[in-house]
Amino acid sequence: MTGWHGKILWVNLTKGEIKKWEYPGLWARNYLGGRGLAARILWEYLPSGTDPLGPYNLLIMSVGSLTGHPLPSSGKLQISAKSPLTGGYGDGNIGTQASVELRKAGWDAIVFEGKSEKPVYLYIENGKAELYPADDLWGIDTFESERKLKEQHGRNLGVLQIGPAGERLVRFATVLSQEGRSGGRPGMGAVMGSKKLKAVVIKGTGGIPAVDLKELRKLGAQAFTDIRKSKAYDFWMRQGTMMTVQWAQEVSVLPTYNFTEGVFDEYKGIDGFMLEKLKVSQRGCPNCNMPCGNVVEDEEKEWSELDYENVAILGSNIGLGDLRKVATLNKIADKLGVDTIALGSVLAFATEASQKGLIDEKIEWGDYETYKQLARDIAYRKGLGALLSLGTRRMAEILGGNSIEFAIQVKGLEVSAYDCHAAPGMALAYGTSPIGAHHKDAWVISWEVQTNRWSYDRDKAAKVIELQRIRGGLFESFVACRLPWVEVGLSIDYYPKFLKAATGITYTWDDLYDVADRIYTLIRAIWIREYKTWGREMDMPPAKWFKRPTTKGPLAGSHLDYEKYNQLLNYYYEIRGWDRRGVPTRETLERLGLGFTIPALDRIVGLN
Asked: pTM above the 0.90 mark?
C-alpha cells in the first residue's frame, strides 16, 4: 500500500484504549480514502440498528491519498458516522489544518467507539496518542476552546472540536475548526458529544507518502499556476461563493421565505457586492490559493466568515436582508457549533408554522432579534429551541397537520440553498444525495439553467450521476476540495495524474467512476440496512416544490411535476443499476465488488 499510510488509530472511549489497526490494502485501492474508507468501515463494524447517540456508533475522521500534499485545496478531512438527524449514513468534509497534521502524524483515519464517563479530548503527536480530561473545556464555545488547546499544546497543530450544541446533542450539531470552519451537517457534532469527546488535537512532523513526490510537486505547481491564470480568478477572489446570490436571484433559485419563492426583494443587501463593501479579511483551507472564506464584521462588531450557503439560508430564506445581521447569526452558529443550513431551515420552518397557527410563539419574517435568541436557545435546547433542535422532519412529525409539506428536507437533512420549483435536475440531486439533501454531491443547477431547465429526460439524470461520481464519489474520498475545478475551471484531468504520482496506481476515468459507483452503492446499502424498509419515497424532494407554485419573479407559477419527477427518478435508477425501489440489484452489487452486502440486503428487502 503506497500513497497511504495503511494505518488507522482506533480509540475505545469506554475503556480508554488506543490501538493501531492496519486495514486491508484493497480498501485503499478500491475506496481511495475519506468517504469511501469511512463507508467501508461503517458497513463492516457498525452494528445494524445502532442508536446514533449511543456508545456503539462509530465516529470516523478520515483523509485520502491526496490530502495534505502540495496540491490545490488539499487540506480537507472527512467526518462520518450514523446520523442522529437522519438515521442513515452521515458525513461532512471540513477544511482544516487538522487534515494535514493527521497525514503528517502517520494516520489515514481515526475511529472512535464507546463513550467516556467524563469529558475528554484526544491528543495525537505523530505515532503517539493520549486522552486528556476536558472538564475545563466542556461548556465553552468553539472559538474559546481552540484558543485554550493551542495555549496548552502550541499553535502549530490542528484542532477539531464541538461547542455547547454538540455537548447537548442537538441533532444538527457540527464539528468546528479554526474559528469558522464547520463540517458534518447530519449531526456529527452530536455524535462526538454523545461520546463525551470535546476535541481532537493533532500534531504531525513526518512525511506524507508518495511514490513520486517530485512529480507530484511539479503537477501541483502547474495546477496552482493554472488557477491564478483563470479568467474567473479575480472575481472569485473578490466575492468567492457569494457571487452566487445575484446569480440565484437572476435565475429564480434563491431560497426565500422557507423555499416558498425563488427571488428576494432585498437580495442586494446580502449579495457579493455588499460583501465587498464589508469585507475585512479572507480565509482559506491549507494548500489553497483561491480562499472562499470571506470575513466581515458583524452587527456585534465581531468577525464572521461567510459563504453563499449560510448567507442565503440565514438571509433570504428567513426574510433577512442585512448582511451584518446574517453574519451575526452565522457567528453564533459557529461559536456554539450548529449547522448554519439547518439553523436557517428550522428558523424558517418555525416562522411558517407560527403564521399557520401551529405553534403559540409569534414569529414574523425577518424577525432578527427573535431569530438571534432562538439560535442560542437551539444550541442549549431551551424553550422553543428544544423543538427546533430536532430538525424540520421531527418538528413536522410532532406538530402534525400539513407541516411535513413545508419541512424542506430529504431523508431528514435540510435542503441547502437552492430553490427547485423550476429545477427538476437539482431536485433529483437533492433527492438522491447519499447523506440527505445537500448540494455538495451534485451541484447540477448551473448546468441545468444553461441547458433545458424544464426537462425531465434521461440526459439530466445522467448528468446528476456524472457530477455525483466526481464531486461526491471522488473529491470526498481523495480528500480534496472541488472548488478549483468547479469555480475557476482547473482541468479535472489533473486528478488521475495526482493519484498516479501519489500512489503509483494508474486509474482511468472508467476506473474512477467504478470507485465512485462502488461508494454510492455501498452507502445506499448502509441506508437500507438501517431503515429495514425502503422505497422510492425516500428519494423524493420536499412536497412544497410540487404543491405550492411560486408567486413572484419571472418564473412565477413554477412547480415540479410529480409524474415527470418519478420518471426522472426511474432514469436515475436504471443508470445506477438499482431497481424501481432504489435498491441496488444483485448484478450491480456483484459487478462493483460489493457481494459482501448481498446476504444482509436480500434478507432485509429481497434483491432483484
From this structure: yes
